[in-house]
């Protein structure tokens, strides 16, 4: 018969830690990685608490759209993942992580549900929802509500950014955006670009030729800003669709000897940790990244408990965080 000692040995923790964890001791504080080791050890050994039948340990797959390298260059998805792992770890749910470019995804066989993090084509979404019992797509929007999706309210966020710049007296406002290519070769429709153009036209802003689209990276932000310098005129303010883009643009602006925000005001998007450490600190749209991850995990567990399943679309609010770059 399997004992706590067997579980403790496999998980490389003490027997008392195993006991407190399995008995939901509220005073116990251990890293999420250790929690996962314990859950895997319990499942591997088949340990059951004496006097009662052991509850089934749920296993959730986490499929990353980004590669490991891309995730390291842009912390947006790292923060979403932290929210997922924190929520599931506290509820003793085992997580199996897979990146989309991994050749072997067979380890996802037998999972209870899947969180797909990032941008997926229609073909992939259909395939995943056919293959796994319950799937929730995070950071995805679809034209119709066919799948379980959670995304951010980009349209209102862009409206906040433009309204703030207009209140400061800006009329010539540009946009530095990025594009994301799906598995089928199509480009994901970023609602921020559409929202910016609609609002700029509605308000009669001067935005041409100050709208550029490249990649979501510091390098792209730097390159797009250099392109603007080659034009006949410059905008007095820029909205950037990610903080890395804004940080790259900031470097290019300062290399030209211009001041921020006196010569060009900048607004980023995401509110990553680096945004508050730029010079000057970056005004940005706070995206609830960790909260989106936690909501995704919560909704997945709720879906597993339900007897009636209907697809849903959940949109989370963003908020302007004013610092010194505007």
From TrEMBL:
At the top level of its lineage, which domain of life is listed? Bacteria
> Gene3D superfamilies annotated for this entry?
3.40.50.2300, lambda repressor-like DNA-binding domains (1.10.260.40)
Annotated HTH lacI-type domain residues: 2-48
Keywords assigned by UniProt, alphabetized:
DNA-binding, Transcription, Transcription regulation
Q: Which GO terms describe its molecular function?
A: DNA-binding transcription factor activity; transcription cis-regulatory region binding
Q: What is this protein called?
A: HTH lacI-type domain-containing protein
* CDD domains cross-referenced by the UniProt entry: HTH_LacI, PBP1_GalR
Keyword Metal-binding tagged: no
Q: Which PANTHER family match?
A: HTH-TYPE TRANSCRIPTIONAL REGULATOR EBGR, LACI-RELATED TRANSCRIPTIONAL REPRESSOR
Q: DNA-binding among the record's keywords?
A: yes
Query: Record's InterPro entries?
Result: HTH_LacI, LacI/GalR-like_sensor, Lambda_DNA-bd_dom_sf, Peripla_BP_I
Per the record, the coiled-coil ranges are none
């Amino acid at each position: 018969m399997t004992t706590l000692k067997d579980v403790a040995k496999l998980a490389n923790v003490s027997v008392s830690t195993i006991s407190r964890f399995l008995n939901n001791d509220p005073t116990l504080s251990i890293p999420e990685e250790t929690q996962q080791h314990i859950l895997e050890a319990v499942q591997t050994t088949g340990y059951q608490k004496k006097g009662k039948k052991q509850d089934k340990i749920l296993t959730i797959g986490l499929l990353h759209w980004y590669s490991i390298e891309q995730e390291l260059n842009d912390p947006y998805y790292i923060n979403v993942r932290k929210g997922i792992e924190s929520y599931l770890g506290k509820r003793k749910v085992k997580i199996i992580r897979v990146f989309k470019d991994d050749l072997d995804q067979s380890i996802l066989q037998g999972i209870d549900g899947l969180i797909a993090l990032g941008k997926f084509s229609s073909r992939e979404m259909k395939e995943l929802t056919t293959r796994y019992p319950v799937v929730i797509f995070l950071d995805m929007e679809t034209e119709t509500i066919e799948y379980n999706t959670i995304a951010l309210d980009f349209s209102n966020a862009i409206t906040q950014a433009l309204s703030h710049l207009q209140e400061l007296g800006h009329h010539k406002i540009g946009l530095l955006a990025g594009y994301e290519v799906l598995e089928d070769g199509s480009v994901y429709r970023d609602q921020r670009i559409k929202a910016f153009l609609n609002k700029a036209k509605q308000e009669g802003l001067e935005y041409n030729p100050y709208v550029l689209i490249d990649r979501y990276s510091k390098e792209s932000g730097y390159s797009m800003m250099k392109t603007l310098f080659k034009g006949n005129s410059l905008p007095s303010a820029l909205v950037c669709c990610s903080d890395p883009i804004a940080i790259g643009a900031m470097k290019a602006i300062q290399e030209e000897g211009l001041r921020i925000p006196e010569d060009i005001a900048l607004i980023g998007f995401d509110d990553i940790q680096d945004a508050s450490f730029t010079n000057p600190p970056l005004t940005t749209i706070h995206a609830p990244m960790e909260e989106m991850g936690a909501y995704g995990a919560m909704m997945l567990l709720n879906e597993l408990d339900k007897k009636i399943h209907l697809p849903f679309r959940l949109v989370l609010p963003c908020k302007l965080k004013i610092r010194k770059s505007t």
